[in-house]
Amino acid sequence: MKLTDIINPWGALRAARKDVAAREADAAYYERELSMSHKAIRDMHHSAAADEKAHALKTHNLKAEIKRLEKIIAEGHYRNPETGRLGRRGEVFAK
């Protein structure tokens, strides 16, 4: 305890209150930052899961499109470049 605290206890009380208020503000700030970082991590996990779902859906759609195009090719009629005639279904001629 200082001599000024004995002479002016209200000043010491005021300084102590300022110190407590500053510490509470720091604690609140760090708590807010911590909750924001938890929220950011949670959002990152959600967006990663959403990206994974979107990638899986896109892959599935592309595979379905490949199958559809392969079916069209398998059932298609191609012209023989040497004779100009149409070949049998699915028959492919080398160039």
Walkthrough of the structure:
The protein is an all-alpha fold and 95 residues long. The protein has one domain (7-75). 76% of the residues lie in helices and 0% in strands. The protein contains two helices and no strands. The protein is rod-shaped, with a radius of gyration of 38 Å. The chain starts with a helix and ends in a 20-residue tail after the last helix. The mean pLDDT is 84.
Layout of strands and helices, then pairs:
Layout: H1 3-7, H2 9-75
Give the domain tally: 1
Q: Over all CA atoms, what is the radius of gyration?
A: 38 Å
Poorly predicted runs: none
Continuous helix count: 2
The major beta sheet can be summarized as: none
- Assess the beta-strand content as a share of residues: under 5%
Shape assignment? rod-shaped
Number of strands: 0
Give the ordered list of helices and strands. Answer: HH
**Which structural category do the helix and sheet elements fall into?**
mainly alpha
Share of residues in helices: over 70%
- The end-to-end distance, rounded to whole angstroms, is 101 Å
User: Overall pLDDT, averaged?
Assistant: 84
Keywords:
95 residues; mainly alpha; 76% helix
